[in-house]
Amino acid sequence: MPPIRPRSSKNSTEQEGRLLLAIQAFKNGDISSIALAARTFNVPRTTLRDRLSGRTERCTTRANLQKLTETEEESLQKWILSMDSRGSPPRPSTVREMANLLLEKRGTTPVLSVGEKWPGNREWVTVIECTNAAGWALPPCVIFKGKVFIESWFEGLPEDWRFEVSPNGWTSDEIGLRWLEKLFIPTTSLLR
After folding, report:
1. What region holds the HTH CENPB-type domain (predicted)?
2. What φ, ψ does residue 69 adopt, rounded to 5°?
3. CA distances from 148 to 37, 45, 46, 165, 167 (A)
4. Rounded (5°) CA angle 56-60-61
5. How far is CA 96 from the centre of its chain?
6. What is the pTM of this model?
7. Helix, strand, coil tally for the chain in percent (to 5)
8. C-alpha dihedral over 156, 158, 164, 165, to 10 degrees?
């Protein structure tokens, strides 16, 4: 469940605009003190001070305790998808090793590493795949354990993949029938 935000997004956007104006007025020398700029533009003095010292807004910073940078995560994601496109999707242990290699290449002391249970608690996931002898394959149907389908789980994945949820993460007659009707039959009938 996402954190409860005390302000509406409209108020947050308005405050962000006032903060930017206060920063600009202070940097241009129109206002001589941080406290006066905060009062003039009705923004928290400490937030204005933090922004002027280089801190970014909280909503754009990464969550605490994330060891990989956004660039490292993107590299890891591209590597996983590249391996998958070549028919060799990596196992979770291999992905963990690759993440540790990325952290090791930073050259920090002590060397950082991801945890033993990274990336997750290993819930059941089933994939329906279809490949022929000529070497072409249909997009996969990935079935996750869950009750509710949440689209944000699948951001960044290929758009032609099909996603389903089931109580145990396994396929069912209904999921198999939907796969046949929505993916297999339409795609293979185009090949005739």
Report:
1. 60-132
2. -75, 170
3. 47, 42, 41, 7, 10
4. 70
5. 17
6. 0.41
7. 45, 10, 45
8. -30
Residue 1: per-residue pLDDT: 35
- Parallel/antiparallel/unpaired status of strands 162-166 and 125-128: unpaired
Alpha carbons within 13 angstroms on the beta-carbon side of residue 38 total 13
Rg (CA), the chain: 24
pLDDT the model gives residue 4: 43
Four-CA torsion 114, 120, 122, 123, nearest 10 degrees:
180
- Angle, CA 163 vertex, CA 157 and CA 169 arms, to 5°: 120
- Residue 120: the pLDDT is 64
Task: For residues 169 and 127, give the distance between their C-alpha atoms in angstroms, rounded to a whole number.
Answer: 10
pLDDT of 6 reads: 47
Mean pLDDT per block of 10 residues along the chain (192 residues) reads 46 82 91 92 91 73 71 89 85 86 82 77 79 86 85 80 88 92 86 64
pLDDT at 57: 67
